[in-house]
Amino acid sequence: MIKTIENDAIYIKMQKDLVAPNISEFKSKIVDFLEDNEDESEDLDEVILNLSEIDNIDSMGVTFVVGLYKSVVKEGKSFRIEGCSDDIKQLFKLMKLDEFFDIDE
């Protein structure tokens, strides 16, 4: 997972599939990153989750994405996903998650 701050946004690029065995690792890394950059992240408007290297997502992965979205919105920031495969994009649309956040190609 690559976590950076770019152009007034927190940019998170996932490098492992969003499946149950990986979720607790992802959660702790994101929490640590946000805590370490708390002062800087307060001024940022958006969180971008890049899924370009992800081939698989399971129900725990979807729950992770929804939980991240809820946390971001609670902080008054916008959330979007970019770079996901057509299959993952179709899954998000089937679950109507595209009604809550943008899913870019």
TrEMBL record:
Question: Which species is listed as the source?
Answer: Helicovermis profundi
Record-annotated STAS domain positions: 1-105
- The name on file for this protein is STAS domain-containing protein
Q: Which CDD domains match?
A: STAS_anti-anti-sigma_factors
* Matching Gene3D superfamilies: STAS domain (3.30.750.24)
The family database entries (Pfam families) matched by this protein are listed as: STAS (PF01740)
Check the record and name the InterPro entries matching this protein: STAS_dom (IPR002645), STAS_dom_sf (IPR036513)
